[in-house]
Model the fold of this input.
Amino acid sequence: MDMTLADDLRISDLKPGFGARIHDIDLPSASDAELDKVVAAFHRHGAVVVSGQTMTPDDLMRFIGRFGEAEDHTQTRFTLPGYPKIFILSNRVVDGRPIGAHNDGVGWHTDYSYKPEPVMLTMLYAVEVPDEGSDTLLADGCAAWNALSPEKQAELLPLRLHHSYKHFMATREFGAQVLSPEMEAANPDVEHPLIRTHPADGRKALWPSTGTVTEVIGKPGPEGLALVDELVAFMTGDDFVYRHKWAKGDLLMWDNRCTLHTGTLYDDTKYFRTMHRLWVKGDRPY
Done:
């Protein structure tokens, strides 16, 4: 494993050219200055993994606060009591009621793409994990963009995508529902660029999504939607994907401005999985 020293952090790639695994740091006891070095690594690398952590909800809130303002969750019934910014992903049922959302996030997407200012960062903290399955996959939009021909890049640059939360919730594979009038009013449709520029350093990323996209502005009809499917398939090929196999105490963060991600299934009749998810507010894509 190749290890580099950056900002006094010991870092290795998650896969060649993408992501950072940060070694030899205990996040709960780290100083704010040390945490800010992790933040800087996040903005450069697209994703960060820190393993072997024991994080209380207060530790998670302190850490997420170094990245920016924690974002609210669209669905609020599975937030951690007393911590509305911490969302529970779990298949556990307590007293006849689920304690968290189950099979949430299966299918390639970027979080909150249906919002005018989508989530910048998604953080997952592993409370309990199955012995097999439930991997999280990240696709590197910058590497995918750089692999396109100049002609293809020129074709894609002017295109924009129409995203719809209403469409997403009505058609999703797990947990489909018709929105209430209040939820629909709070989540109007939005448009975003297909190619996104990263504000940290200007790097460009292929930025399609599945589930929320209803139209390509600049290439309407089935042809545009077929292009989105083609680009998602290209970006999520093995060359551009990091697969995270979970261990208890892992903390995985990814940059929604330059990646797609998906959860994967596991044997939920045999295993329990509980994660704490936090989001950081983002800015308007350009």
